[in-house]
Amino acid sequence: GEDVEQSLFLSVREGDSSVINCTYTDSSSTYLYWYKQEPGAGLQLLTYIFSNMDMKQDQRLTVLLNKKDKHLSLRIADTQTGDSAIYFCAVPGNNFNKFYFGSGTKLNVKP
Amino acid sequence: EAGVTQFPSHSVIEKGQTVTLRCDPISGHDNLYWYRRVMGKEIKFLLHFVKESKQDESGMPNNRFLAERTGGTYSTLKVQPAELEDSGVYFCASSQLGLPTGTDTQYFGPGTRLTVL
C-alpha cells in the first residue's frame, strides 16, 4: 500500500504564510488531495491537484506537486486564526477504491 | 444538497458491548467508504461499497466488524463485541461512480467518535 508522511505540528503567527508538506511512496494517482478538519468537525475537502500539474492556486491556497520526488505541499498565504485545524494529505490508491492518508498536520495560528 | 451524515456523533460503550454506526451518503453516490482514525494516527481505510456490493474489505481489522449496505443507500458498521482498541473516530465517505474525471472525489461525513471503556 501507499505510505503517506506528514509532520505532526506547525505553529505560525497570524498573517504569516504556512507551508504544510506531504510525501508519498508509490502512486500513479491522477489526483492528490488536501482535506481540512476543524475542531469538532468532519473532513472538509480543501483542494486537489491533477497529477500532470506542478502548481494550483486557489485564493490564499497554493498546492505544489513535485511528482519526481513524490512531494506535495500546501501553502496558505496570510494565515488567519480560522485556519487553525488539522490538514490531511490524501493519495488515492489504484482504481481510486481507497484513499491513503497521512497522520495529519495540526496547524496552530497564534494571534 | 445534503452532505454525508453519520449517526451517532459520539458513542461510549463498555468492552464486550455491541455498537452500530450508521452512514447516509450523498444522494446518488454509488461509492461508500468507511475509514477509521485511532489515537491521532493516520486515517485508515476499512472498506468500500459499490452500491450494495463490497468492493474491497481489506482494511477491516477482524471479524468483529461487520458492514452492510442493504439496498445500496445507507450503510451500517457493527462492532461486536467491542474491544478497547476499537476506540477512535469512524469516518464515512461517498463518491460518484465515474473515473477518472475527478468525480471520484470522496466527500466525508463528520465522523462518529467511539469510546470503548
Task: Tell me what you see in this structure.
Chain A is mostly beta strands. Chain A has no helices and 11 strands. In chain A, strands 2, 4, 5, 9, 10 and 11 form a 6-stranded mixed β-sheet that branches. In chain A, strands 1-3-8-7-6 form a 5-stranded antiparallel β-sheet, with no helix packed on it. In chain A, a hairpin with a 4-residue loop joins strand 7 and strand 8. Chain B has 117 residues and is mainly β. The termini of chain B are far apart. Chain B has no helices and 11 strands. The mean pLDDT of chain B is 91. In chain B, strand 7 and strand 8 form a beta hairpin. The chains are: A mainly beta (111), B mainly beta (117). Chains A and B meet through strand 4, strand 5, strand 9 and strand 10 of A and strand 5, strand 9 and strand 10 of B.
Report low-confidence residues of chain A grouped into runs of 5 or more.
none
Count of individual helical segments of chain A? 0
**Overall residue-averaged pLDDT value of chain B:** 91
Quaternary arrangement of the chains shown? heterodimer
What string, H for helix and E for strand, traces the elements of chain B in order? EEEEEEEEEEE
Largest interface: A-B, 25 and 28 residues
Percent range for β-strand residues of chain A: over 45%
Helix content of chain B: under 10%
Helix and strand element order of chain A: EEEEEEEEEEE
- Strands of chain B, total number: 11
Count every beta strand of chain A, where a strand is a DSSP E run of 2 or more residues.
11
How would you sum up the global shape of chain A?
Answer: globular
Estimated structural class of chain B: mainly beta
Roughly what is the average pLDDT of chain A, rounded to an integer? 91
Rg of chain B (C-alpha, Å): 14 Å
Instruction: Specify the overall morphology of chain B.
Output: globular
C-alpha Rg of chain A, in Å? 13 Å
In angstroms, what separates the terminal alpha carbons of chain B?
A: 37 Å
